[in-house]
Amino acid sequence: MFNDDAYFRFGNYVGYRNGFADSDLTNEKLVSILQQAIKSINLILLCFDDENKITYANSKAFKMFNVTSSEELEKEFLDWISNDTKHLEYSNWCQIYESMEGEKVYDIICQKIYDTDNKLRNSIYVIDECVQNSSNKAGVRYRQMHDPLTGLLNRDGFCHVVEEYRKLHINTDETHYLIITNIRDFKLINQMLGDKDGDSILKTTGRIIRSLMYPEDIYGRLYADKFAVLVSERNFDKSMYRNMINLVRSQITSDKQGLRLQVGIYRMEDLSDDVITMCDKALIALKSISSEEPVAYAYYEPLMMQKALTEKAVVTNFDTALKNGEFKIYLQPQMNQRGELIGSEALVRWKKIDNTVIPPNAFIPVLEKSNLISRLDLYVWELAAIKLREWQHTEFSDLYISVNISPRDMEFIDVYDAITGLVDKYEIEPAKLHLEITETVIMRNPATVSELITKLKDAGFVVEIDDFGSGYSSLNMLKDIKADVIKIDMGFLRKSENEERSRIILDSIIYMTKRLGMGTVTEGVETTKQFEFLRSMGCDVYQGYLFSKPVPVQEFEAKYSHVYNAEKII
Question: pTM for the full model?
Answer without folding.
Answer: 0.58
